[in-house]
Amino acid sequence: MDTIAAVPSRFQFGCHKVLHLIRDQWKQVCASGQLKEIEVVITSPMSRTLQTAVGIFHGEDQPDRLDVTSFEDEKVKGDDETSTFNRPPIIAYELCRERMGKYECDRRGTISQYRSRFPEVDFSLIENEDDILWKADERETHEEVMARAMKFIKWLWERQEKEIAVVSHGVFLDQTMIELFKNNKCSPLNDYDPHSRFRNCEIRSVKVFNESVMGLGSDSFSNHCGRIRIPYGLEVVQIRDSTKDNVSVEELEVTN
């Protein structure tokens, strides 16, 4: 894969968060070992992302579930006594769902069905039982997806957590990256082409600074300063979910 060197950001100092954006293939994500300090998981309310979020952080494949503690529990332990796995709260949120309209694979089920299937997930932020955002005769434009992605990033920034996992979809994450890389709003932490589509299980990381988020047009932001793993930055990790290369989300047969 063609790569580009990391470009130094204009914003070298300031408040930050650590954010992981994830696309399915949860077994490979777990094996990467990058998600041990997540404080909260924000997931799209689609079955494929709900399965990924629960599989990564509350999965049955993890050893003895009784021995697994949350990030908050782990912080109060001594250095010699830490948990191998992390079980942060999982919250479903509509803003980070896939591009909406026309295709049934991007239409979510009812919240009552999801609550029954995924009791580990908090659905309290979703107002409507049925999917009123999806329209059979109208497809969301890329510009609308990008605007929604930036609204979502602003919402994340106002949360109190410093390290957040976001489980979402290809088009949504692609539009997020396009906007963040405009005008040097962020800088990559490893070598990759930020404009290319993701391969299966690929992980990409970038730093996004408080000043960058402020530049997206928010009227006000809480100053959640701190130093969590990545100094002065917001780390973004994306992982491709499709088992088919070079196939758009619209072409996939997925049950929601």
From TrEMBL:
<dbReference type="GO" id="GO:0016791">
    <property type="term" value="F:phosphatase activity"/>
</dbReference>
<dbReference type="InterPro" id="IPR013078">
    <property type="entry name" value="His_Pase_superF_clade-1"/>
</dbReference>
<protein>
    <submittedName>
        <fullName>Phosphoglycerate mutase-like protein 1 isoform X4</fullName>
    </submittedName>
</protein>
<dbReference type="Pfam" id="PF00300">
    <property type="entry name" value="His_Phos_1"/>
</dbReference>
<comment type="similarity">
    <text>Belongs to the phosphoglycerate mutase family.</text>
</comment>
<dbReference type="InterPro" id="IPR029033">
    <property type="entry name" value="His_PPase_superfam"/>
</dbReference>
<dbReference type="InterPro" id="IPR050275">
    <property type="entry name" value="PGM_Phosphatase"/>
</dbReference>
<dbReference type="GO" id="GO:0005737">
    <property type="term" value="C:cytoplasm"/>
</dbReference>
